[in-house]
Amino acid sequence: MSSFKKRVPSAQATLPAGCRLSAYNGQVLISTGVPSLDDILGGGLPLGTILLIQEDRQTSYGQLLLKYFLRQGIVAGDKCLVVSGDESPEAIVRSLMGIAGEESLESQVQSGVDNRDDEDEARRERRKKAAAAGGADDEDSEQDRLTIAWRYSGLKKFESGVEARPPAISSRVNKAGSTTEPALTPSQIPFCEQFDLTTRISAKALELADTTLIDSGELQKAVQTGDSDLEDDSDDDFSTSGSASAAGKNQPDLYRNVLDKIRETLIQGGFSTTLLKDPSAPAPAPGAAGLAERHICRIGINSIASPSWRSKTPHDLYKFLHALRGLLRFSFGAAVITIPAHLYGTIDQRHATDGSTTSPYIHRLEQLCDASVRIESFAGAQTNASSAASAYHGLFHVHKVPVLNALIPSSTKLSVLLDGAAKGSGGPGQSGSGGSSKGVNNLGFKVRRKRFAIETFHLPPEGGVGQRRTSAEPSSNSSSSLSERKKSSSTKASSDPGPATGSFKKAGSSEEGSVQSRARSLGGSSFNKPSGQVDVHSVPGASGMARKMMGLPPKGIQGAVASGCSTGGSEAGHNHNHGGAESGANSSLLDF
Amino acid sequence: MGYASLEPHLPSSHAPLLPPGTLLSISDTQASDGNFLLHHFISNYIKADQNVVLVGLAGILVHYTMVGRKLGVNLATARTKGNFQFVDGLTQLTDYAAPNKEYLAKPAESKPSSQTTTATLPITTTATTSGARIARPAAAVTPPAPPKVLSYSPKLVDLYRTLEEIIQDTASKTAGSSQKQLVLILDDLSVLLNCGWPCRDVLALVRYLKLLVAKFNGTLITLVHADGLMAEEVSQDGLVKGVLYEADYIIDVRGLDSGGSRDVHGQLSLLHGPGYLLRQRAGQVRENEWPALTLHYKILDNNVEVFAKGYSSGVL
Predict the structure, then answer these.
(1) Where residue B289 falls among pLDDT bands split at 50, 70, 90?
(2) Which terminus of chain B has fewer CB atoms gathered within 10 Å of its CB, N or C?
(3) Smallest CA–CA separation between A276 and chain B, in Å?
(4) Contact with chain B for residue A266, Cβ under 8 A
(5) What per-residue confidence (pLDDT) applies to B133?
(6) Residue B255: which domain range?
(7) Residue B43's pLDDT is what?
(8) Tell me, what's the pLDDT at A69?
């Protein structure tokens, strides 16, 4: 036996499982379970912070993000504390998604759903091919060279999203039979796992998960009846024995009760660094218990301040957040809170789509949180913006990103999506402006089987995924489902990987020529399109695009409508976007 | 020395400090956080070896220490020396957080745990790449007393009394030598409003504190959120206007009207408060002591560039 040992970097080893250090300010980060959201936050959610997610209306993408957060916590063996009022927290935990690749052996994957990721696969394939072509000598890349818009061939590839780190699925599948998740050593636990929305969390993983569930609805009832000694339905180790504060229980105050329970969990689990389980016992020497033994407490609060959360004054929630922040700052924990923000504010604010949806109440809540994002799904939108951007499921607004231990948020330095200017994107201060400024990206999101992707928002290229250049005659089966169209587009993408598709991602009007030819070649294919066409004069990549798009005429307008949406100065040419105004984009939601 | 490019635009009579007995009100918006200005004044006062009392209603000590390090100021040694006092207004400010106290370790033991774990986590893990265990930071060997804590009380008067005690304590410690200047910084007044105290009481607190620090040759700096959206709420609007009314100097931080930009993060409006105008009328103010003007700024890693409108690096 050799006496030589491989030296492992100790700084990494001392971190708790599933954590990493920020490359910018050395903050300990945990993953939200969504790589692109991690990117926006500057690599991950810093410990001790609160992320506020303003929910979409009519869909539940906000809750989906919360589920990703909790599921990632279960992967990492973290403590998960779920608070929910509208839905029972148990239901939320049970409906968590499975890990991609782990349960595919059980053949839960239907072939119909599988197609949804084909588009991504095809794109990845293309990208790989392009990378290979770039590495090869000039002879090979000669045919890939642009012949028309050759000026643009020197530009770097247009990237709209963040590539997830490919997880080691193969090793996981091999182990899945024999070992369980927590058997992995901390260094083996991925920072961000890839999940599969078509599968459910396995019973074994659920069993092993360290969860504490707080049903605020039950709590509400107990509070009202004055029953101070209530039981919460916790799964395992944690039980509410000693009441945190006798004084607090006397007043019927839901938020106080929830906070008391959170505090108790943090203290009992040893997540807090200042508050001790037993104050009289001597404090353990600092640093003696290595960080590796530490675990993280993930607090997920679903739909806080929904009508089922009753409070006497709005100050209750302010105080709750302030106290929670004070608690978390000195704890190994982080919180993700979703809030149905659309329930607040005036009527025109509720229907506004340009980022001014924030009401003063929500705005004050944002002040008390460290990060705040807003999800706006097209399914719930009043306008038909969805038709012009069927590739996305909605818009993603970043209102605030965490600034900790530094002057500028780390995402300003690190984020690919925010592109160097985290500030002011969609902030209410700029709500009146067109928002057309360089450096601030509009973000959209799409949900695929294996990922929740937040990308820079741009119009799909003409003749691309769901669009078509020539106007089609009104056909009877105009309500073609999206999956059908996706299928057809993906098949043609795979069947025709010529130079036209290769230059597909080049920015600007370089697409004009290639896409035209491609669209022409597709002219004869059976491609169902609804009637009506809308000309969108627009510039791809320009910010403020989202807002401009909201100004499109409502759907159902027959005939050619030319709405000249002028956009702020940009060098690229106009994109003539002939396509059906009406599309089945709203049906593109995954039914999870 | 703070942000060098901002310095020329600030009152010059006591440069780099603010004239004593005055109130500087900083108002900001969510899109453009005004917190970076506080760091400027903290580092200026510490560098000049004056007293600083910082009430962290939104930020924690670690945050200010870390940023101070980037600006070249060691707040940890300043704390041991006694001319930097941090008051924790985060963990036990509300009645919701009051039971926290029950779980606090006994004073003798609370020092190491509160000082090292979260506080120095980022520092130590980055600093030690070779050691197997996390090395103790030097500060932990002789830890200064844990920060004073503002604990909950239904009346803001009690908060005032606590602060008064701290300020007197700080001033008396360093009274031996020449009379030092003092700055009291409240890092987020809006928090007090959010935590349920009425606007009138918060304003009264500001007025009292202004008078209090004036006694100790000091200056008061407050930060308040003044988003346009918040003006719809009476109490919030009242707080912003009330503080501005008390102020001698006003710095208004907001984003550009035309939206965010890579080269310009926002604009600073240096304005005259009513207090300044009164003194000007009385002839107590030198000409051009505080020129009212609007500047643009860009925050960098460890500095902030302040420049005239249209002089950003992207334009020139």
Answers:
(1) confident
(2) C
(3) 5
(4) no
(5) 36
(6) 7-94+156-308
(7) 93
(8) 94
Q: What is the mean pLDDT of residues A274-292?
A: 58
Joined together, the tokens standing for residue A525 give 């294919």
Question: What residue ranges in A278-386 does DSSP mark as E strands?
Answer: 297-302, 333-339, 371-377
pLDDT in tens, A418-429: 764 433 333 333
In this structure, the number of other CB atoms found within 10 A of the CB of residue A382 comes to: 11
Interface test with A, best of B39, B57, B96 (most A CBs within 10 A): B96
Cβ–Cβ of A363/B229 closer than 8 Å?
yes
Locate B66 and state its tokens: 């870390």
Is A248's Cβ below 8 Å from some Cβ in B?
A: yes
Note the ipTM here. 0.87
Q: Is the pLDDT score of A489 beyond 60?
A: no
Distance in Å, alpha carbon of B209 to nearest chain A alpha carbon: 23
Q: Which tokens go with B124?
A: 């130590």
CA A276 to chain centre: 35
Beta-strand (E) ranges in A287-421?
297-302, 333-339, 371-377, 394-400
In this model, does residue A500 exceed pLDDT 80? no
* Cα distance between residue A365 and residue A329, in whole Å: 17
The reply to whether residue A14 touches residue B134, judged by beta carbons under 8 angstroms, is yes
- Residue A535's identity, in one-letter code, is D
Burial of A331 (0-12, 13-18, 19+ CB in 10 A): buried
> Beta partners for A21?
A28
Q: Report the candidate in A379, A383, A394, A391 with the shortest Cα–Cα distance to residue A579.
A: A391
A403–B35: do the CB atoms touch at under 8 Å? yes
User: Among B20, B83, B93, which Cα is nearest to B52's?
Assistant: B83
DSSP label of A169 = H
Per residue in A330-352, pLDDT (tens digit) is 989 999 999 998 888 665 555 55
* Tens digits of residue pLDDT in A538-570: 334 433 444 444 444 434 333 333 333 333 333
- Shortest CB distance from B99 goes to which of A245, A363, A438? A245
CATH for B48: 3.40.50.300
Specify if B296 maps to a domain. Answer: yes
Percent of chain A at pLDDT > 70 equals: 46
* Residue B148 lies inside a defined structural domain of this protein: no
Cβ A364–B194 below 8 Å, yes or no?
A: yes
Structure confidence at residue B38 (pLDDT): 94
* B-contacting residues in A 444-503 (Cβ below 8 Å): none
Task: Identify which has the larger pLDDT, A80 or B229.
Answer: A80
What is the rounded distance in angstroms from the CA atom of residue A166 to the CA atom of residue A428? 37
DSSP string, A471-515: PPPP-S-----HHHHHHHHHHHHHH--SHHHHGGG--GGGHHHHH
Concatenate the DSSP letters of all residues of A522-549 into one string. Answer: TTTS-----S-EEEEEE-TT-TTHHHHH
The minimal CB distance from A421 to the residues B97, B227, B262 is found for: B262
Identify which of B33, B63, B236 has the shortest CB distance to residue A405: B63
pLDDT for B12 equals: 72
Residue B185 lies in a domain: yes
Task: Say yes or no for a CB contact (<8 Å) between A424 and B255.
Answer: yes
Provide the shortest C-alpha distance from residue A287 to chain B (in Å): 6
Name the residue facing A274 among B104, B190, B300 (closest C-beta).
B104
What local confidence, expressed as pLDDT, does residue B154 receive? 85
Residues forming a β-bridge with B307:
B296
Q: Is A554 part of the contact surface with chain B (CB cutoff 8 Å)?
A: no
- Look at chain B and report how many structural domains it folds into: 1
- Evaluate the omega torsion of the peptide bond into residue B8 and state whether it is cis, within 30 degrees of 0: no
Kindly determine whether residue B29 and residue A10, on different chains, have CB atoms separated by under 8 Å. no
Are B92 and A326 a contacting pair at CB < 8 A? yes
CB contact under 8 A, A14 and B258: no
**What is the number of other CB atoms lying within 10 angstroms of the CB of residue A33?**
30
Residue B14 is assigned to a structural domain of this protein: yes
